[in-house]
Amino acid sequence: MNSIDRRRNLGPANAQSLNFDAEDIVQDDSSNADTNVINETPKIFIKSGTVHSANGSSYIESDGTIISAMVYGPRPNFNKGFNAQASVRVTLNTKNFVNLEEIKTGTEDSVSDLSERQIISTIQSTLTDSCLKLVLLKNYPKSAIEIFVDILMLNESHSLTLLLSIIQNATNIALLNSGLNLRSVPACGYIYDEGNELSINCCHGFYYDTDNDEQGEEILCLYSGSIKNPICFGKSVQKCMLQAKEVRQEMNRFLLSQ
């Protein structure tokens, strides 16, 4: 009877373990990642025309935050006797598992002291101001345009300013998908630079500027979560507008591929 245990093959008696030099070991660079990555153009997933009953709709995923936007209109407005241009109404909805009260006011870990109603009111008023400047409302008299935005999922690490920039871009794509007359293709940029946190929704206008990077750029809406360095605020605005131009380039590629 063979009593040798063959479940473990130990190899020859003179076998030696493998030794690797220290320089051959591959280092993990994930711990050395740039902490200023929020200034780069984020990777986003975009889909338009997701809601067939709406005149225009969009769906955006960006770093764990999912936003859906729908545009209805222009519809006949029976609330007023006569209005020379279309009215705009923005409604923001959140799912039951999305808690806006835990959102941060800035890039720090400080939680917002605003209530959920105040946060919703801030987002709705900012979107309304941007849409009033973007849509050619005079082309739609006696009409109403309704925009519905749903926050389907929220990344807890995102600040209110970053969330607003994602919502702005979702609304921009929904407006482009609706076929409404717009001044130009809008895009919203976000940046955190030297203590200043900004989101700027802008479009290409017909304004002359000595700086070629800002040539023809018109600000539709600017929201600032924190201004800790007022001296560099102008430079932060310029960097944010450049980031918005990069976002517009990605949006143009997406729209041309449809």
From TrEMBL:
UniProt protein name: Exoribonuclease phosphorolytic domain-containing protein
Protein family (similarity comment): Belongs to the RNase PH family.
PANTHER family with a match to the protein in the record: EXOSOME COMPLEX COMPONENT, EXOSOME COMPLEX COMPONENT MTR3
Subcellular location: Cytoplasm; Nucleus
Major localization listed first in the record, in broad terms: cytoplasm
InterPro entries on file: ExoRNase_PH_dom1, PNPase/RNase_PH_dom_sf, Ribosomal_Su5_D2-typ_SF, RNase_PH
Residues in Exoribonuclease phosphorolytic domain copies: 43-180
Entry GO MF terms: RNA binding
Record's keyword terms, sorted: Cytoplasm, Exosome, Nucleus, RNA-binding, rRNA processing
GO biological process assignments: exonucleolytic trimming to generate mature 3'-end of 5.8S rRNA from tricistronic rRNA transcript (SSU-rRNA, 5.8S rRNA, LSU-rRNA); nuclear mRNA surveillance; poly(A)-dependent snoRNA 3'-end processing; rRNA catabolic process; TRAMP-dependent tRNA surveillance pathway; U4 snRNA 3'-end processing
Gene3D superfamilies xrefs: GHMP Kinase, N-terminal domain (3.30.230.70)
UniProt entry tagged with the keyword RNA-binding: yes
Recorded GO CC terms: cytoplasmic exosome (RNase complex); nuclear exosome (RNase complex); nucleolus
Superkingdom of origin: Eukaryota
Keyword Transmembrane attributed: no
